[in-house]
């Protein structure tokens, strides 16, 4: 929490990162598997939009939607939505990322099953502008 009594700004990014780790693990790509493959996810950009306050002890729900992915799955964009317990959208965390070859320290193409898992993620549809 921050001095204003709501969730600190960096905690939103932490919840989004945790959600990505959970998704990857559900698809069979946990830390051990990434070690075997010698690849890992990296981020180029992370942007948070704060919409509603989240207070101490308040339950939240986080989901992930695919905003974009290139044909070979090597680069991707995800939007994580953080909801308050009452269903109102509290924040969005948008990330752009890719896969890093851990030995060469260069971008790489993911295994086909990982690219397919990403492609199966629900698609993000940006809300229409207000006004």
Structure notes:
- With 131 residues, the protein is α+β, with helices and mostly antiparallel strands.
- It is 25% helix and 37% strand.
- The longest helix is centred in the N-terminal third of the chain and has 18 residues, at 9-26.
- The chain has helices spanning 9-26, 31-37, 112-119; strands spanning 39-50, 60-69, 75-84, 89-101, 106-108.
- Strands 1, 2, 3, 4 and 5 form a five-stranded antiparallel beta sheet that branches.
- The mean pLDDT is 94.
- The termini are far apart.
- The chain has three helices and five strands; from the N terminus they run ααβββββα.
- The protein has one domain (9-119): Hotdog Thioesterase (Thiol Ester Dehydrase, Chain A), CATH 3.10.129.
- β2 (60-69) and β3 (75-84) form a beta hairpin.
User: Residue share in helices?
Assistant: 25-40%
Give a count of the beta strands, DSSP E runs of length 2 or more: 5
CATH superfamily: Hotdog Thioesterase
Which structural class do the helices and strands define?
A: alpha+beta
Main beta-sheet annotation: 5 strands, antiparallel
Total number of domains: 1
Amount of beta strand: 35-45%
Shape annotation: globular
End-to-end Cα distance, whole Å, is 33 Å
What is the CATH class? Alpha Beta
User: How many DSSP helices?
Assistant: 3
The CATH architecture assignment turns out to be: Roll
Overall average pLDDT: 94
The residue ranges in which pLDDT falls below 50 over 5 or more consecutive positions are: none
Radius of gyration: 16 Å
Q: CATH topology, which one?
A: Thiol Ester Dehydrase, Chain A
The SSE order reads HHEEEEEH
């Amino acid at each position: 929490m921050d001095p204003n009594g709501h969730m600190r700004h960096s905690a939103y990014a932490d919840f989004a990162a945790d959600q990505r780790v959970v998704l990857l693990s559900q698809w069979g790509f946990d830390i051990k598997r990434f070690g075997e493959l010698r690849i890992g996810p990296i981020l180029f950009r992370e942007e948070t939009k704060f919409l509603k306050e989240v207070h101490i002890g308040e339950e939240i729900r986080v989901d992930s939607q695919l905003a974009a992915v290139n044909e070979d799955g090597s680069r991707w964009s995800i939007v994580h939505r953080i909801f308050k317990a009452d269903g109102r959208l509290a924040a969005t965390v948008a990330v752009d990322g890719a896969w890093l070859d851990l030995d060469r320290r260069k971008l790489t193409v993911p295994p086909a099953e990982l690219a397919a898992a990403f492609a199966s993620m629900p698609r993000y549809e940006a809300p229409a502008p207000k006004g």
